[in-house]
Design goal:
The chain has 137 residues and is an alpha+beta fold. The chain is built from one helix and eight strands, in the order αββββββββ. The protein has a single domain, classed as Immunoglobulins (Immunoglobulin-like), CATH 2.60.40.10. The chain starts with a helix and ends in a 6-residue tail after the last strand.
């Protein structure tokens, strides 16, 4: 009986600790997870319409990148390569990729940029990626 009470108390403390950690951590959210590539106003170029929500109070800048399956950079265009998104704000953005690169492009990612101000450095950098290939392995 004593072992059961001890185990129950330990599990309760662990759950409280994990819930406190989870509630203090935040990331950013990028949608859609599987963007639809649409024709753009430029021939031979496709466009993905994306949206990023910043849930982090310690980060305001996010970098956009496009990668192949081996995480090599793919050339792309966007009006915002690095964008400022304030805490609890949403930023819509477009990414343009050549049709000829679409057979290699797999990931469209945003990465939080760490502040150079030592007093406001985030502890965790976050990277969120959407699949351009529809999740095909």
């Amino acid at each position: 009986m004593l072992d059961w009470l001890w185990l129950s108390a330990l599990l309760t403390r662990a759950l409280i600790f994990l819930s406190l950690i989870a509630s203090s951590l935040g990331a950013h959210d990028m949608t859609p997870a599987y963007p639809e590539m649409k024709p753009s106003h430029v021939e031979g170029v496709l466009k993905a319409e994306m949206s990023l929500f910043n849930a982090r109070s310690d980060t305001k800048y996010y970098q956009i990148e496009v990668f192949d399956k081996d995480w090599n950079n793919i050339e792309f265009a966007s009006p915002l390569r690095i964008m400022k998104v304030d805490h609890k704000e949403r930023q819509n953005f477009d990414v343009y990729i050549r049709k000829s690169d679409m057979d290699r492009a797999v990931y469209l990612c945003t990465t939080s940029k760490v502040s150079k101000d030592p007093g406001a450095r985030p502890i965790i950098a976050s990277k969120i990626c959407s699949r351009l290939d529809g999740g095909v392995p």
